Amino acid sequence: MSTALGISGVTAVLQTMLNTLLNAEQMGSVSVTSVAPDLAQAAVASGTDYPLTVNLFLHQVTPNAAWRNIGYPSVGPDGATRLKNPPLALDLHYLLTAYATGNFQAEALLGCAIQMLHDTPTLPRSQIRSILNNLPTTDSTNVLSPLLGSSGLAEQIEMIKITPATLGREEMAWLWTALKADYRPTFPFQVSVVLIQSPTPAVSAMPIITPAITIQQGLMSPLPALAAASPPGGQPAACLGDVVTLSGTYLSGATSVTLSNTQQGVQQVITPLTSLGNGSYTFVVPTPAGPPSGSSPTDLVAGVYQATVQVLVGTDTVSTNGVPLAIAPQIGPSWAPGTIASGSGVTVTVPCTPYLWPTQQISLFIGGQGAPITLPVPPPAPPPTNSPSFTFPTLLPTSKQVPVWLRVDGVDSPILNLTGTTPAFAPPMVQVT
Asked: Is residue 1 included in any domain, yes or no?
């Protein structure tokens, strides 16, 4: 496949071929350029006598219809590991324009150039390789010349094909009006297809040496699979230190669970597992031993995670599918002001776990009245905190005590007590007076 220099490589090959052909004809010296028509026109007009010039201009690049659905870029569950690098397939649309002042000269130039394109519907790989490897390397005005030989254009799986194109009168008029240049005899054509592939390293599954085929009764897959992650007490999210139950099938060989939060770049492997069975097991959401260190989180932060299980199947360790698990922030139990004065510009500071990072979306709600976290201005970004402050532009009074909760990356701290027969608001509760 080609690199991103493949487009430049096509233009360089066509320009070199045209230059070789036209200067071999008995028409005198011909200049072959590949610049915008307005620049070509200005260069021609700057001389005392208009030189014979043929200009090659790439005016449009479009996706190739046949190749555009051959795979899509894909990454692993972490959102970063590249699994596939499908090619970017492009069609190149050119304008071939002739400039001359004498009678019949522009037509002769255009005729010779079009005949060359007609006689070369497919560019031979050997010719592409030879041209790109022998471009002038001493041209100080073009630093790309010595680089195009490594573009891989000659080695791509699809050969380069040239086909005539048709532009109507309106299209041609719009195009030349946009180019802000005087119209000259022009031939449009298309080059297809340039396949550009990223050199980004990708991972691939190891080949199977000896297939292990077994017969399994029933329609259920024999592979370990997760169905749900259930926080305790019917809560929608778990807090640090909570016992979470993962349920599924064929989990008896589970060895660990991995929690991944791609938004904050956190991944943590959790052991040990308890109450291990074929259909479910439990684990404890770990609590950090101390305050965070470094410029990015390494311990669990509040947010939505993907939980996967590592299961020992025979001598192999298999990772299951992922299920979502939300880890909620929690307001510290020591915060119980009872009442808060209403007013404008009211600042409220609450203790919380886990630590909150400046890269997170953080808000505090008092009975539905919300305020974002207050950060120092100007940067740099503040360090993570477990005692965030929030400023309410206008905090209105409430008729009774109302719940207070944190919302971090879309996950709310627990505000409902679901253990009783009737749901009730959980502390902390305050009244705005």
From this structure: no
The residue written with tokens 């040496």 in the block is 209
Q: In which residue ranges of the chain is pLDDT below 70?
A: 46-50, 73, 77-78, 137-141, 204-205, 216-220, 376-380
pLDDT at position 211 is 76
Pairing of strands 424-425, 389-395: unpaired
The Cα 39–Cα 34 span in angstroms is: 10
Q: In this structure, are 382 and 420 located in the same domain?
A: yes
Q: Same domain, yes or no, for 420 and 337?
A: yes
Q: Which helix (H) or strand (E) holds 318?
A: strand 316-319
102 assigned to some structural domain: yes
Return the ∠ at Cα 321 (arms to 241 and 296), rounded to 5°. 50
Backbone angles phi, psi at 273, to 5 degrees: -105, 145
| Helices 6-24 & 125-133 angle (0-180, nearest 10) | 90
Q: Which domain holds residue 270?
A: 225-288+296-327
In 65-208 the beta strands, taken as DSSP E runs, fall at: 74-75, 82-84, 88-99, 161-164, 186-196
Phi then psi for 305, rounded to 5 degrees? -115, 160
Flag whether 348 is in a domain: yes
In a shared domain, residues 68 and 185: yes
pLDDT digits 0-9 by tens, 374-396:
876 555 678 899 999 999 999 99
What's the domain count of the chain? 3
Asked, as a colleague might, if the bond just before 37 is cis with ω within 30 of 0, I would say no
**Is residue 212 included in any domain, yes or no?**
no
Q: Is the pTM of this model over 0.70?
A: no
Determine the Cα–Cα distance for residues 83 and 387; give it in Å rounded to an integer.
41
User: Do 128 and 257 lie in a common domain?
Assistant: no
Alpha-carbon distance values, 384 to 353, 375, 413 (Å): 11, 11, 18
Element spanning 258, H or E: strand 254-261
Q: pLDDT (tens digit, 9 = 90+) per residue, 44-57?
A: 776 555 678 999 99
**Whether residues 63 and 186 fall in one domain:** yes
CA–CA distance, 355 with 291 (Å, rounded to integer): 8
